[in-house]
Structure to design on (369 residues):
């Protein structure tokens, strides 16, 4: 609680005033919307309080002023509001963000006022999470950074506290690939109604959600192509969702390799209802078969050829690696995979380096003739 001082102790300024409190600390008070408000903290000396007022007044004149009161909201409250207002998010993305907030961000940082969230606190939180769940830590950090950047735009804080260099980068190990011969052997261990799904994942380089989202009218047997228009996923909260691919690049037409086309023809005849919107891989509920059912089918297949290290998504990775080895350009890989930027397609260019070595060896062999 403060008390009245003489002119030497309390000076009225254009932007505000300073006064000494009973504790001995100095308080700065500034004018905003016709009322006087206390500064965000107290100061050790009168000079420090006056310096803060001067800096605040200069920021206001430059148009860079951030009202300290705006940042007095907790990170949890601001994050929840931010998520509600993001009407542009896909249902699966919204569920993922909700999970990251509730499980990994807000339990540690949620009660902290966003204006008081320090880079050191963010760094400590990220480091602890990264030690046990590196991929989750990267995703959670990217989300927190996006939220804090919005707070800067909203003039709630001056600068984002997310200052961990590379905090949002995922350093995933290179995934393994399956050989064409191994895939041929693995298919023998797959139930007939699921064989086309495994082959499309590999030879047409489809994501699991894209495989499960296929309908009869997406297959053009006359042209021998596949139209990728939607995906089917079970979100992290357990809800099922059907929607367009994440980016426009994900909506694409893919030529079906000749070795796979007969399998697709037989599958349509034996396991797909005649309606144009019938699911290619139907489940008992009338919706596409559950993702875990496809995962189980692949688990049995990979174990039958001694490759328990291969995940279902590695079939797509393998197929794109095969495509790169044939000499496919980055643009061609992007088109076939549904990538929106070259960065993802470039991951498969190591295959062209292997191919280049084979060509070099073949050239060397010419000199020995």
């Amino acid at each position: 609680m403060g008390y009245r001082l003489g002119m030497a102790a309390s000076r009225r300024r254009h932007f505000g005033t300073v006064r000494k409190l009973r504790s001995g600390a100095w308080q700065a008070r500034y004018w905003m919307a016709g009322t006087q408000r206390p500064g965000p903290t107290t100061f050790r000396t009168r000079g420090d309080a006056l310096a803060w007022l001067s800096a605040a007044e200069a920021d206001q004149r430059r148009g860079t002023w951030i009202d300290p009161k705006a940042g007095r909201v907790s990170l949890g409250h601001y994050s929840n509001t931010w998520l509600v207002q993001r009407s542009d998010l896909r249902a699966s993305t919204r569920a993922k963000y909700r999970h990251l907030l509730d499980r990994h961000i807000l339990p540690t940082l949620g009660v902290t006022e966003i204006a008081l969230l320090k880079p050191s606190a963010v760094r400590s939180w990220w480091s602890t999470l990264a030690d046990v769940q590196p991929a989750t830590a990267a995703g959670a950090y990217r989300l927190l950074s996006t939220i804090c950047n919005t707070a800067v735009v909203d003039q709630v804080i001056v600068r984002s506290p997310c200052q961990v260099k590379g905090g949002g980068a995922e350093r995933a190990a290179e995934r393994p690939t399956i050989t064409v011969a191994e895939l041929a052997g693995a298919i023998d261990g797959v139930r007939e109604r699921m064989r086309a799904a495994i082959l499309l994942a590999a030879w047409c380089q489809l994501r699991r959600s894209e495989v499960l989202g296929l309908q009869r009218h997406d297959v053009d047997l006359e042209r021998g192509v596949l139209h990728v228009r939607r995906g089917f996923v079970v979100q992290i909260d357990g809800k099922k969702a059907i929607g367009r691919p994440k980016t426009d690049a994900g909506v694409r037409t893919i030529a079906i390799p000749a070795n796979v086309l007969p399998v697709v023809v037989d599958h349509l005849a034996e396991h797909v209802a005649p309606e144009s919107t019938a699911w290619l891989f139907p489940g008992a509920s009338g919706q596409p078969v559950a993702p875990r059912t496809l995962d189980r089918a692949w688990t049995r297949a990979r174990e039958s050829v001694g490759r328990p290290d291969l995940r279902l998504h590695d079939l797509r990775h393998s197929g794109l690696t095969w495509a790169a080895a044939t000499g496919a350009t980055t643009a061609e890989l992007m088109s076939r995979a549904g990538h929106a930027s070259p960065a993802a397609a470039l991951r498969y260019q190591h295959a062209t380096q292997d191919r280049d070595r084979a060509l070099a060896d073949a050239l060397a062999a010419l000199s020995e003739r």
